[in-house]
Amino acid sequence: MSFHIELVPAFADNYIFLVSDADLGLAMIVDPGDGDAALKALRERDLFLSLILNTHHHADHTGGNEKLQREYGAPVIGPAREQSRIAGLSRGVAHGDVVTFSTLRGEVLGTSGHTSGHVSYYFPSLKALFCGDVLFSLGCGRLFEGTAAEMWGSLKMLRALSDDTLVYCAHEYSEGNAAFARALDKNNDALKQRADEIAALRRLGKPTIPALLGNEKLCNPFLRADAPDLRRALAASGFAAADADPAAVFGLIRGAKDQFRIAK
């Protein structure tokens, strides 16, 4: 089977992910916030939609569910804990469940923190992680419905995946995230290199997604709340005690990001 993953831009900075089986002419859509954009992409590629995956209930990830269901009759799979808040949900899933598309097998990972039931989908044969708004390139989602400890646990779970995992996050936030990460972690050479790469891609109008998880482990401060070098730097600046609990350090970093503004 020949599978292909494409990014479909939506709204100001969302990405919808279209996974296609070229041999069978079938498609799976992840987080179709904009039904018109998803429908246009499917029609242009002459693909039949057979599955919709939602990572969480926010409208910019689920708003196109019903339009696509009316057109194709595709089932919608999403987090069971958010079932009442997702239009058209056919099957609720939780950590440890499995989803299938064509010959692909995807693992459901419970990644609460951004929302109460947020899930991510990992397809080992594609090395692809569809993580919605829990993990971004050089960033992570806001804590709308969860605690810092919950989100830190979710991020550690994703961090445990192999370095060659491709991170398909749902927003183009990399450039702003890079500015914050560099302000926090000034002596990280890997981060500087990644930030330069992101800036070059954005100057050309190109997406920075997917991100390589191995790079994120080196550069993303939200995955590094327990990293000795970052913790020493934070302690030296008075940001967090050197022996602080990693979940607490993560919470401080997330709070600082919430207040961060890029200098004009």
Topology:
Blueprint: E1 3-10, E2 14-21, E3 26-30, H1 35-44, E4 48-53, H2 59-62, H3 65-72, E5 76-79, E6 91-93, E7 98-101, E8 104-110, E9 119-123, E10 128-132, E11 135-136, E12 139-140, H4 148-159, E13 166-169, H5 174-184, H6 189-203, E14 211-212, H7 213-219, H8 228-236, H9 246-259
Parallel strand pairs: 3-4, 4-5, 5-6, 10-13
Antiparallel strand pairs: 1-2, 2-3, 7-8, 8-9, 9-10, 11-12, 13-14
Helix pairs in contact: 1-3, 4-9, 5-6
Describe this structure in words.
The chain has 264 residues and is of the alpha/beta class. The protein has a single domain (3-259), classed as Metallo-beta-lactamase, Chain A (4-Layer Sandwich), CATH 3.60.15.10. 34% of the residues lie in helices and 25% in strands. It is built from nine helices and 14 strands. Strands 1-2-3-4-5-6 form a six-stranded mixed sheet, covered by helices on one side. A hairpin with an 8-residue loop joins strand 8 (104-110) and strand 9. Helix 1 (35-44) runs parallel beside helix 3 and helix 4 crosses helix 9. The longest helix is centred in the last third of the chain and has 15 residues, at 189-203. The termini are far apart. 48% of the residues are buried. The model has no long low-confidence stretch (mean pLDDT 96).
CATH superfamily: Ribonuclease Z/Hydroxyacylglutathione hydrolase-like
Report strand order across the widest sheet.
1-2-3-4-5-6
- From the alpha carbons, calculate the radius of gyration and give it in angstroms: 18 Å
DSSP helix fraction: 25-40%
Class derived from helix and strand content: alpha/beta
Question: Any idea what the shape is?
Answer: globular
Low-confidence stretches: none
Compute the number of helices: 9
Secondary-structure element order, N to C: EEEHEHHEEEEEEEEHEHHEHHH
How many domains make up the coordinates? 1
User: Can you give the mean pLDDT?
Assistant: 96
